[in-house]
Amino acid sequence: xxxxxxxxxxxxxxxxxxxxxxxxxxxxxxxxxxxxxxxxxxxxxxxxxxxxxxxxxxxxxxxxxxxxxxxxxxxxxxxxxxxxxxxxxxxxxxxxxxxxxxxxxxxxxxxxxxxxxxxxxxxxxxxxxxxxxxxxxxxxxxxxxxxxxxxxxxxxxxxxxxxxxxxxxxxxxxxxxxxxxxxxxxxxxxxxxxxxxxxxxxxxxxxxxxxxxxxxxxxxxxxxxxxxxxxxxxxxxxxxxxxxxxxxxxxxxxxxxxxxxxxxxxxxxxxxxxxxxxxxxxxxxxxxxxxxxxxxxxxxxxxxxxxxxxxxxxxxxxxxxxxxxxxxxxxxxxxxxxxxxxxxxxxxxxxxxxxxxxxxxxxxxxxxxxxxxxxxxxxxxxxxxxxxxxxxxxxxxxxxxxxxxxxxxxxxxxxxxxxxxxxxxxxxxxxxxxxxxxxxxxxxxxxxxxxxxxxxxxxxxxxxxxxxxxxxxxxxxxxxxxxxxxxxxxxxxxxxxxxxxxxxxxxxxxxxxxxxxxxxxxxxxxxxxxxxxxxxxxxxxxxxxxxxxxxxxxxxxxxxxxxxxxxxxxxxxxxxxxxxxxxxxxxxxxxxxxxxxxxxxxxxxxxxxxxxxxxxxxxxxxxxxxxxxxxxxxxxxxxxxxxxxxxxxxxxxxxxxxxxxxxxxxxxxxxxxxxxxxxxxxxxxxxxxxxxxxxxxxxxxxxxxxxxxxxxxxxxxxxxxxxxxxxxxxxxxxxxxxxxxxxxxxxxxxxxxxxxxxxxxxxxxxxxxxxxxxxxxxxxxxxxxxxxxxxxxxxxxxxxxxxxxxxxxxxxxxxxxxxxxxxxxxxxxxxxxxxxxxxxxxxxxxxxxxxxxxxxxxxxxxxxxxxxxxxxxxxxxxxxxxxxxxxxxx
Length: 890
Fold this sequence. Notes:
Layout: H1 2-62, H2 66-76, E1 82-89, E2 94-97, H3 113-124, E3 131-134, E4 139-145, E5 160-168, H4 170-221, H5 236-270, E6 274-279, E7 285-288, H6 290-296, H7 300-303, H8 317-328, E8 334-342, E9 348-358, E10 365-372, H9 374-392, E11 396-401, E12 409-412, H10 414-420, H11 424-427, H12 443-453, E13 458-465, E14 471-482, E15 488-497, H13 499-543, H14 549-575, E16 584-586, H15 588-603, E17 607-612, E18 620-622, H16 624-640, E19 646-657, E20 671-680, H17 687-690, H18 710-720, E21 724-730, E22 734-742, E23 769-773, H19 777-789, E24 793-797, H20 800-808, E25 815-819, H21 828-838, E26 843-848, E27 867-869, H22 874-885
Helix pairs in contact: 1-2, 1-4, 4-5, 13-14, 13-19, 14-18, 15-16, 16-18, 20-21
């Protein structure tokens, strides 16, 4: 190809080079000719202008018009190619000039030095004759004598002798050169165009066909038989091209045939299945692939000549010929069978074989393809294992196809059939929506559909329906299943029945809610009791010294209202498990009778009150007063639920609460309990109200018939005693409220009672000094006033730390009267503990809006302390102080 390109380039270069040489010669000759023509033209113009200029100069000199003469000389300079016009005398001095700078200068010292030579030449010749000269700088000079107008032609005009005119032809020659260059450039472009056309014609007509033919020839010589020149011209080059193309096609077909045979050979050799070629007459192995050699453990040379009975278990030559007879007779196109091959080392493996008779081969052969089933058997066993495992899973498993419109169930394990009530036959082939039926507008289904659209995973909770119509809540998680090519084929879903778990969580949430409300109620009751203490105490102080009965009546009315408020706070504290209890070993049956005796007049004649008390009821460690209050509250609630009459049953029983008992959701410990149950056949309680039964101030009664604290106080008493309350109610049927209290078993570790002094008489309280410890200033000031009104001396401390500081300083104190709940990290129990350890001569009296003893029992037995609940009367304070002083400090 390089030689072809160089030939094409040489021809074009020669044409272009010859043209350029001819163009250069032409331009040189033309330039010289133009110069000669221009110089001749310039001499003619100078010969025409010179006499005229000499005549004009003579005339003006005669008239002495020198200024006009200078102007005329300057105007002559504007003519084409004229450089200088001067008038000189006979000695060569410039008299007048078109360039004023030349006047007065000798002609030899100017650019017209040639003019002096020409003047000298003119003197040697005829004096009246014009002389022309040309110097090397392309300057043409003409000398013209000045002749007098009134004399003969041979006389000179004196003092001027000649007019010298110089023409500068260099500029004209430059213009001529430029014109020639432009002409040469145009000619060169035309020449290049002609050369390009010539190159194109040669390239298309000769070079390209030659290049294709040479390329095709080289490709065929190099073994590339797919190359074609594809020339369609009818000349000799076309015939050569057609012959080359035909030769390439023939060689390519032969090579493709060889490659096909080689590829088929490699394909068979690389197959994972065993391939055997046996002679149809002798049944000996003629050829086999690598898989056969590797699986059997023989080399190719060892297998050649063997018969199939040499490595197939349970067959002989006779049995093989008998089995292959229908195939060899043309009765069958192929034969499939399963057998066992044994290897050279004696091991066995299962195979599935297909044998085909090739009668058109020479000689005829039998081709056998055998597949090793060992891995397939393992996979089948693994598949059966996975199926058994999925069937054994306790959670429902469903597999559906990946169809968007119809997600049909293709697998369902026994757990899902047990959960839904459908049989496996009913589920297989059905749409997955069969499990939801009328619950198709759930938000969870939207989440599932979005996951299906993006072929992703999702986990939601759905309302599902069993075959029998019963509803349950299912926790459903789906995951996509892809094949080996990454295509989505199925979805697998896991279904869990979470109905019971959700119910348990809801009940736990309700219990936590009630506990939170209890904490809030306890705190409010504590602060309210402090306020009531101030109100009650100030009302008592106001009564002192008042004799007006009307004013006393108003004060007592306010005092009664304050105590009614205190009663309400005690119910709140009971609900919040903050009410101080006085627990004793109690049999519930003994106190139910007391409560019923109080209730009998208020129950009414339309209601029947029955008792079903267990004869051998276990003891409990509870507050008897709270038991009677609980019976009264529950019985009154039952009465109010039966405005038209009915039956109330009060029942007691011993129960064992197990871990899976229905009472467990209310968070009661397993063990033995005494159950107090109040049942009625009244109107029942609605479901929405049952969720709020234990909330304080919630009631379904009218405002004049209920405060909403009865059942909540029973709940608080039961929880504070270590038990719980369970309510079962159906609207229109009745309600059953059960109070569970833990059984009490006597032990040696019970707290001992406060020790009494030996003296039976009450100690005189006169002169006692009492330290009042209270963080609320108004409560502290009121308590001080009450104690002073009772005749006691007082000291004050704002908190537990300050009280301990006073006692450490040695202050005389007989009784420490301290609030229980105080800021600063030191409570009334901490103060009492410090007093018992460091000031055993002091007595302790605690007072509080609620009791926090449950958290302090590990530090000091509650039964060893006197606690006066707020609000209290002055008389209650005095009596309690009397009881405190009647006991020896421990």
